[in-house]
Structures
1.
Amino acid sequence: MSMQVKQAANVVELLEFFAKRQRPATLAEISEELGWPRSSTFNLIGTLAEKGYLYEPRARGGYYPSPRWSSIVRAISEAEPLPEAAIQLVAEVAADTGETTAIGAPAGISAIFIHVVESTHSIRYFAKIGHKLPIHATSTGRAILAQYSPAERQSIYRKISFEKYGETTPTSIDAVEAELRRSAERGWHQSNADYSPDLVGVALPLPIHGKRHSVVVAGPMFRCSARVPQIADTLKRAVARFAGDLDLRY
């Protein structure tokens, strides 16, 4: 890992640390908790504080992220928000199926969740906004891949290592392309422990304003395997109902 990439990773790790801790921390506490050298911790904290991203609520009481983070994130999200219809679609599908429902977007060779409503079942698919999945090995990702041209997909495939996550993981270009053809014939994208053990996923393309997204319902195999056609039908009806509001362009 290069120094620049490591520094970026450290900033993310620091934010996650504060999100979990939810109170100020001293340099020593940050260094000890994250396992960073004191000098590196001092340099990073000093830089972020100088730029206004960290502050000391009380003198010598430790550092804490400033509201500048939230103002930047709000500005970014307001510049390209998900339409309210997409939020409503996910909420309705989650309520109708009882399973975790999410919208995925492309992120290189991955798909990333940009909106999630988790199931209320105690045994469920735990998914959070920002969670990344291999684009070729999940129903979420393949519903996005299907929106690319063959040439665009080949460009993505060349960057994938095709790791075998489970017995059903497609581990070659031909295997992924065959699954995309089966999905087109079937009418939905499906995964059966392709990436996550004992997890079923059912997804559809969701090209909101022509931008590649997918919507997925995922849950444990013991509860969802026999319900796949029913879940797919629920997804299809919901997508059709909101198609006009989302300006879906296939």
2.
Amino acid sequence: MTDGVDGQYRFYGELARWWPLISPVADYAEEAAFAAQLLRSASIPVREVLELGSGGGHNAVHLRDHFTMTLSDLSAEMLDVSRRLNPGCAHHVGDMRTLRLGRAFDAVFLHDAVSYMTTEDDLRQAIATAYAHCRPGGVAVLLPDETTQTWEPGSDHGGVDGPDGRGVRFLEWSWDPDPADSWTVTEYAFLLREAEGSVRTAHETHRTGLFAREVWHKLLTEAGFTPELVTEQTTEDRTPRDCFVAHRRA
């Protein structure tokens, strides 16, 4: 596999059915609990939340007990995975840079999918979408994988076996071909085992954006938010992420 075009990666398309084995739902419990705290920091009661870039709905599994969740993602295939997990949630196919649902929410949540914004203009548009859907007094919570201040090259691995006999194992390797630009590269290699025992391999290269904290603050402020940097609370053995809590004035 090669780079996806405009975010259209096979990882999130024809391979979407493997997502629960690549990134299990249970792994999101701690992050979602932390996100719920930040979402409740709005100056208005938070009942309705829009998640942009919701993917397979693994955050929503944990958040839907606290909020009425509306989920949007660029990938129809990932939303199909989410619908099976979250049948009570509304789902919309849409690009976080251009989506306009014609209504507002108490809070807007952007998890790691916001990391696919690889230019300042991409990120500016995604933030504008969050602002357009955020009620006065509401809040937008953005949890990118990395900022310039926290990013480090490295590798990871994972994958689990499913109850249907399928299984996944993967290796990921992140590096920065050019520190002067605003994106980095992650190489993914997968071993995908079908229920009948056959195994195939897949490889894909992903580009993700990398911006300084100052850029995040500038773009959030320009959009009309009052941003605050919050350090993620996690028990995982990794560098805590930079989280941006952006309040819209009442």
